[in-house]
Each structure stands twice: as C-alpha cells, then as structure tokens.
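Page 37, top half.
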Amino acid sequence: MQSPCSLKQIFQSFAPEPMGVLRGRVVSAEPLVIQGEGDQKLRLGCRLLCLPDHLDDLRADDRVYLLSFNYGKKYIVLGREKK
C-alpha cells in the first residue's frame, strides 16, 4: 500500500467517506454564509460550517477553501485566499 503524499490523500486516509476540496465566496459575514464557486445553489450557513478560530474575522467577498465531509453535510473552512 502506498503512503499518502498529498494533503488531500492524508485527509482521505483519516475519513472513511469521500471528501472534497472546493472554493467558495463569503456572501455574508454575520450570519456566516458561504456560496460555492460555480454553483449558485450551494449556499452554506453556519450550521454546516466548521470555522477555525484563526478565521473568525471573515468578511463579505472573501474567497475561501472548504473541505467537504460527511457526504456533503458538513464543511471545514480551511483557509482564505490572499487579496
């Protein structure tokens, strides 16, 4: 068996269900709503998002990277793009 060499492969080795990385845009900071890039229907509210402490200052129009897990029922905000 090959050992995981990418960040995505490492995360996938920890979780039995499929995971995916996607980009999104912060539509609203209060309450937090993130819209998936390229998918107008994918709007994620705070109930679906896990937000790390270092990203508690997200603002509208920030671009973020999300890790989906639990078959798309939960998303972790991984980081923000530099402007």
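Page 37, bottom half:
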Amino acid sequence: MPPETPAPQLAAMVGKWCELALKRRAHFVDLYDSGRWRHYYTEPEFVAELRKLTQMIERWKAIAGDAALCDGAARRAPTRDAA
C-alpha cells in the first residue's frame, strides 16, 4: 500500500489550526460578553488582539483554499450551550 499523500494530512493540519483560531475567537467573545477582558487587557490591547485573531482566521482560511475546511472546524467547535 503506497504511503498516504501529504494533501490529506495537510488538510487535516490546516483544519485543526483553523479550529484552534475559531475556539480562541469564541473565548474572546466570552471575555467580552462577561466583561472579564478588562481584568487582562486595556481596551487598545484587547482590540489589537481581536484584529490579530481576525487576520489569523482569514489567513488560515486562505491557506485552506477550500473554505469548507474551516467551516467544518467551526461546526466541530463546541459551543457554550454544549457544556
């Protein structure tokens, strides 16, 4: 049996990194909703972190090429209601 081509392995890796970025964004949303962000960041720092995170998500989506990789990660990401 020939070794697995790197494409599926790379797609899985990109999906995992995209999922991680989406989980991080959910965490930032939770921090914002609860007001806890003020314990860890100043407002300019928090805004800068959100901008970096948004750019990171867009970068992973561009690397994925197929938006379904990141969209699939979003569907797998747990929500607050699932806890």
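Margin note: Residues 16-74 form one domain.
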